[in-house]
Amino acid sequence: MDKEVTEARMLGLQRVVATITAKLAKLPEVKTKHAELMRNIEVNERLVEMLLTDLEEAKIQNKREIQAAVLVDAATPPRIRSSRSCG
After folding, report:
1. What does the alpha-carbon distance between residue 77 and residue 87 come to, in Å, rounded to a whole number?
2. CA nearest 86: which of 56, 43, 78, 61?
3. Residue 14 to residue 3: CA distance in whole angstroms
4. Distance between CA 40 and CA 36 in Å, rounded?
């Protein structure tokens, strides 16, 4: 009876060891994927920073352009009509 229990325990432990070994074999793959994802995050963070900077610069440039367009004189219709017909 003790022999059967011991053999059953050994079989169970062998299965656990096999499962853990399989998981450990995948570890380098997981580490590589993790490193790739971390690089993607860093690249995307830098991209967002650059885009935000570009957006702020565009807003400033837009304000400059709007301020540069100042109405000098209001348009008024001519007092004498031109003799040429348009159209």
Report:
1. 19
2. 78
3. 16
4. 6
What letters, b where the CB count within 10 A reaches 16 and e where it falls short, cover 3-27? eeeeeeeeeeeeeeeeeeeeeeeee
CA–CA distance from 86 to each of 59, 69, 81, 82, 83 (Å)?
Answer: 41, 29, 12, 9, 9
Global confidence as pTM: 0.49
- The total number of residues shown for the chain amounts to 87
pLDDT tens for residues 44-56?
Answer: 999 999 999 999 9
Number of separate helices (H) and strands (E) present in the chain: 1, 0
pLDDT of 70 higher than 70? no
Longest dimension (CA), the chain: 123
Rounded to 5°, angle at Cα 59 from 55 and 61: 115
